TrEMBL record:
<dbReference type="InterPro" id="IPR047647">
    <property type="entry name" value="ISAs1_transpos"/>
</dbReference>
<protein>
    <submittedName>
        <fullName>Transposase</fullName>
    </submittedName>
</protein>
<feature type="domain" description="Transposase IS4-like">
    <location>
        <begin position="3"/>
        <end position="164"/>
    </location>
</feature>
<dbReference type="InterPro" id="IPR002559">
    <property type="entry name" value="Transposase_11"/>
</dbReference>
<dbReference type="GO" id="GO:0004803">
    <property type="term" value="F:transposase activity"/>
</dbReference>
<dbReference type="InterPro" id="IPR051698">
    <property type="entry name" value="Transposase_11-like"/>
</dbReference>
<dbReference type="GO" id="GO:0003677">
    <property type="term" value="F:DNA binding"/>
</dbReference>
<dbReference type="Pfam" id="PF01609">
    <property type="entry name" value="DDE_Tnp_1"/>
</dbReference>
<dbReference type="GO" id="GO:0006313">
    <property type="term" value="P:DNA transposition"/>
</dbReference>
Length: 202
């Protein structure tokens, strides 16, 4: 948690705002946020509701709730600029199965409405998803290159490679496409052609 509080402080010191996911291992903060939302259940809370999303037989809805961080019980001054606490409730219905609920919690230094918080969380998920793909397919988190601008340059190259692999329309996973490129130069040519063609259109 010390690392996260330092990140929050650095972001605020630069004049920017943060939106950070609250994990279970952040015991005190996580428990305090859950307690606040539980205690407000019977009261009106500003919230945003997303439209239905249907995919693979699932129906999903999301609601985003926002409260002031001043409602928290305890001392959380280590989180510089802490302004809002956010809860996202995801409801998933699959035919023939009971409805499942999932809750995720966030903190932000910005004064957000429920709609703004919902948009920010969706962007956050997109970034998390991209980093997960980069780690799984290209082992990004294990990279030990830090000298000069090596890390930034490699990160840029990974993003370019990922975009090229995604541009190639074959219905195969990113890792699968990488293996195909390794085994057959013609597959690599198709990926490069698709990637460069997509770049020229932008």
């Amino acid at each position: 948690m010390a690392c996260q509080t330092k990140i929050a402080k650095a972001i605020v010191n630069k004049g920017a705002d943060y939106l950070l996911a609250v994990k279970e291992n952040q015991g005190g903060l996580s428990k305090a946020i859950k307690q606040v939302f539980r205690s407000h259940r019977a009261e009106p809370i500003e919230f945003s509701s997303s439209p239905l999303e249907k995919s693979h037989g699932r129906v999903e809805t999301r609601q985003c709730f926002v409260l002031d961080a001043t409602d928290l019980q305890g001392d959380f001054s280590r989180w510089k600029g802490l302004n809002k606490i956010i809860m996202v409730e995801s409801s998933r219905a699959v035919k023939g199965k009971p409805i499942s609920l999932e809750y995720r919690y966030y903190i932000s230094s910005k004064t957000l409405t429920a709609d703004q918080a919902a948009d920010a969380v969706r962007e956050h998920w997109g970034i998390e998803s991209m980093h997960w793909v980069l780690d799984v397919s290209m082992n990004e988190d294990a990279c030990q290159i830090y000298k000069d601008h090596g890390a930034e340059n490699l990160s840029c190259l990974r993003h370019i490679a990922l975009n090229m692999l995604r541009a190639e329309p074959t219905k195969v996973s990113i890792v699968g496409k990488q293996k195909r490129c390794l085994m057959n130069p013609s597959n690599l040519e198709r990926v490069l052609e698709a990637g460069l063609s997509g770049a020229s259109k932008n």
